[in-house]
């Protein structure tokens, strides 16, 4: 099942295969050593940050799913000089005569001494599935046109390809990660973003201008395919000393998500269905203990997932539950204690997290037997458990983490400190292919990969007929 490839000559390949054979019981720590020069943020006058021409031209255009099923899209953008219009004009590719309009809303926010531009959010409802739409924002001279393709209708054998990006930031490495995602021959149709967007908070006074540059940098992709947002610690922006004591202020003003469609009470946790996937987004930095809003929502949410309709159950969060790097080691432990038993009970297929600036893939393991007195507190192999992927390797200004917990714990299947992105390619209800692509390689190279068998459908196959 496991495949390790990379830039290897045949001798290297043989050596790598031997390594794989030798460490079958434990995991692999890749021997690939990348240049670990710290990458700086791209300068303000970089091409990727250019303001589009024209008076009050819409900038930072980005889209995300706008409902629970995939027939809605939220379009967001910023006009810098004046409010302009919050209307989106849109039409199906095969029907240019019928132009529709959707009316959005406008907001601005202040952060310390920064005042945002005019931020527009407009939800388009009731689109046709599997259809290419063009859309236009702005008024007068300065309209800008983009397009997106809606997903196929929800169903068990609908093939669909997700990209995975985390902890992106806005360095030259960030730009490489995005370019590698764009040029990957396996075309991602939607990005699952696992948190830590702009890293504006690494600047003095959390300079929110770096939120704007990040919006302009990512527009080239996020205006054309939805990015499904997860909040990370760099979205908290909690600085009471500056008078900023409302957590997640810039993030929640700039990045709207369809949380009400999944009966959530907060944009920080929600769910969507898309093609054959059911995606649950959680917040590592909001209360998740018993009786909290997030806990109660998740408790009701998991039993709702109909695996006949959406076989692939995916969870996104920022802080990983299993991580064997030294940095952020055990930070996900308290959420693991609360939720891991549910993830196993409901046979979650895969959990993606960021936070740790490196890549790691786990075995299928769980650690839920412990009850304080029985001493059973080590992860064990568990075929009902998810695979955990850490993909916080987008390339932000804080650099890579290279220091690892030694020896490699048995739950860790593969780990490597390089920048890159992932692809989760769903083929049908039973099979999906995950691959990880590092930035140093050619666009088609899979540095780590794995076939996943759907947990729900696999367990049905394995049950004796009488009990189905
Ligand atoms: C456009 O395509 C959609 C979906 O394929 C179809 O339902 C609709 O009838 C088409 N409209 C026109 C005008 O061809
Ligand atoms: C905000 O305050 C900082 C610190 O005093 C200052 O350097 C910066 O120029 C100010 N920015 C604006 C827009 O006033
Ligand atoms: C619109 O564009 C024309 C031609 O480029 C220019 O002459 C005019 O000043 C523009 N109007 C505004 C309001 O920007
Ligand atoms: C970012 O990447 C794009 C696409 O590869 C390239 O055109 C652009 O010049 C890069 N910009 C910087 C500042 O590296
Ligand atoms: C689950 O989805 C299938 C396929 O859409 C449907 O036939 C079935 O009734 C659903 N089950 C429940 C409990 O809603
Ligand atoms: C599902 O996809 C896998 C991988 O492409 C393939 O081997 C398998 O035959 C497919 N199953 C069905 C029922 O089509
Ligand atoms: Fe983080």
UniProtKB/TrEMBL annotation:
PROSITE patterns: FN3
A Pfam family assignment: Metallophos
UniProt GO MF annotations: acid phosphatase activity; metal ion binding
Names of the cofactor(s): Zn(2+); Fe cation
Listed Gene3D superfamilies: 3.60.21.10, Purple acid phosphatase-like, N-terminal (2.60.40.380)
Catalytic activity: a phosphate monoester + H2O = an alcohol + phosphate
Secretion signal, residue range per the UniProt entry: 1-26
Keyword set includes Transferase: no
Domain (Fibronectin type-III) ranges: 57-153
Record keyword Iron present: yes
Enzyme class: hydrolase
Keywords from the UniProt entry: Glycoprotein, Hydrolase, Iron, Metal-binding, Signal, Zinc
EC number: 3.1.3.2
Superkingdom of the organism of origin: Eukaryota
PANTHER family: ACID PHOSPHATASE RELATED, FE(3+)-ZN(2+) PURPLE ACID PHOSPHATASE 12
Family: Belongs to the metallophosphoesterase superfamily. Purple acid phosphatase family.
The protein's name in its UniProt record: Purple acid phosphatase
Organism: Prunus avium
Gene: LOC110771558
């Amino acid at each position: 099942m496991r495949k390790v490839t990379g830039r290897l000559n045949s001798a290297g390949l043989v050596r790598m295969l031997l390594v794989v054979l030798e460490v079958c019981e434990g995991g692999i720590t890749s021997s690939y050593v990348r240049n670990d020069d710290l990458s700086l943020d791209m300068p303000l006058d970089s091409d990727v940050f250019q303001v589009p021409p024209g008076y009050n031209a819409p900038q930072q255009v980005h889209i995300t799913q706008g409902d629970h099923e995939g027939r809605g899209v939220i379009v967001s953008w910023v006009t810098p000089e004046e409010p302009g219009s919050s209307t989106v004009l849109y039409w199906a590719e095969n029907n240019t005569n019928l132009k529709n309009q959707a009316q959005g809303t406008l907001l601005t926010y202040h952060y310390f001494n920064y005042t945002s531009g005019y931020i527009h959010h407009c939800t388009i409802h009731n689109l046709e599935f599997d259809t290419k739409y063009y859309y236009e924002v702005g008024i007068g001279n300065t309209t800008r046109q983009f397009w997106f393709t809606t997903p196929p209708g929800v169903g068990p054998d609908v093939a669909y390809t997700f990209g995975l990006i985390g902890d992106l930031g806005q360095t030259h490495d960030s730009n490489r990660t995005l370019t590698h995602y764009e040029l990957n021959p396996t075309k991602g149709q939607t990005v699952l973003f696992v948190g830590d967007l702009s890293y504006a908070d690494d600047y003095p006074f959390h300079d929110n201008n770096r939120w704007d540059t990040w919006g302009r940098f990512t527009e080239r992709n996020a205006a054309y395919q939805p990015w499904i947002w997860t909040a990370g610690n760099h979205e908290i922006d909690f600085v009471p000393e500056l008078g900023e004591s409302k957590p997640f202020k810039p993030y929640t003003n700039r990045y709207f998500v369809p949380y009400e469609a999944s009966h959530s009470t907060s944009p920080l946790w929600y769910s969507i269905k898309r093609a054959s996937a059911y995606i649950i987004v959680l917040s590592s930095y909001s209360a998740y203990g018993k009786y909290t809003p997030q806990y109660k929502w998740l408790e009701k949410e998991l039993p709702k997932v109909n695996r006949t309709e959406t076989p692939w159950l995916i969870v996104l969060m920022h802080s990983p539950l299993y991580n064997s790097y030294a940095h952020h080691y055990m930070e996900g432990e308290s959420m693991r204690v609360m939720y891991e038993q549910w993830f196993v009970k409901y046979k979650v297929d895969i959990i993606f997290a960021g936070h740790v600036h490196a890549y790691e893939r786990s075995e299928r393991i769980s650690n839920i037997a412990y009850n304080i007195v029985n001493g059973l507190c080590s992860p064990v192999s568990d075929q009902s458990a998810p695979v955990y992927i850490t993909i916080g390797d987008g390339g932000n200004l804080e650099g890579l983490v290279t220091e690892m917990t030694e020896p490699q714990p048995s739950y860790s299947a593969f780990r490597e400190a390089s920048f890159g992105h992932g692809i989760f390619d769903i083929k049908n209800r039973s099979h999906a292919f995950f691959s990880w692509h590092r930035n140093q390689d050619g666009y088609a190279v899979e540095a780590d990969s794995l076939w996943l068998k759907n947990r729900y459908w696999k367990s049905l196959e394995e049950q004796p007929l009488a009990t189905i």
